[in-house]
Amino acid sequence: MSEEINDRSNYSADNIHVFNVTNGVKTEVNYPNLDYPHDFMIYKNENLNSYYLRLFIDTDTTYLELNKTITDTVISTSQRSYGNWILTKVWYNGIVKWDSNGPMVFTILK
Q1: Are 77 and 100 in contact (CB under 8 A)?
Q2: 83: domain range?
Q3: What pTM was computed for the model?
Q4: Number of separate domains in the chain
Q5: DSSP 8-state symbol, 7
Q6: Three-class SS of residue 29?
Q7: Strand 105-107 relative to strand 2-5: parallel, antiparallel, unpaired?
Q8: Taking a C-beta distance cutoff of 8 angstroms, is the pair 90, 102 a contact?
Q9: Which letter, b or e, does each residue of 83-110 get, where b requires 16 or more Cβ atoms within 10 Å of its Cβ?
Q10: Distances (CA, A) of 108 to 21, 53, 93, 97, 105
């Protein structure tokens, strides 16, 4: 799931934190052996001269702390089948942003 970051200067990867909620317990994501240990990456689309944050969703409730004052909530529904986890719908701060139609990208301008 990707979202556009309009002004990267306001959001540093060092200040972004991702928290998953599992069984009611909020835990910061940290998988040190993975390429993206905090379940996100920031990349630049050279054609559009825009930066994007790609969030790797692992649970039905995720908190995306962009800095010390901004924390957004990502709620998702999914289906699990034969060991696969298939995302079916995503809400960003209570607003449906994706519902399994079209590419898994939406724009949030901050």
Answers
A1: no
A2: 2-107
A3: 0.83
A4: 1
A5: -
A6: coil
A7: parallel
A8: no
A9: eeeeeeebbbeeeebbeeeeeeebebee
A10: 22, 10, 10, 9, 10
DSSP string, 71-108: EEEEEEEEEEETTEEEEEEEEETTEEEE-SSS-SEEE-
The 10 Å Cβ neighbour count of residue 68 is 8
Sign of CA dihedral 36, 66, 26, 81: negative
| Confidence label for 71 from pLDDT (cuts 50, 70 and 90) | very high
Token pair listed for 57: 């969703």
Cβ–Cβ under 8 Å, residues 21 and 29: no
- Whole-angstrom CA distances from 4 to 28, 92, 93 are 22, 13, 15
The pLDDT assigned to 106 comes to: 82
Is the four-CA dihedral 103, 43, 22, 82 of positive or negative sign?
A: positive
How far is residue 39's CA from residue 78's CA, in Å, rounded to a whole number?
17
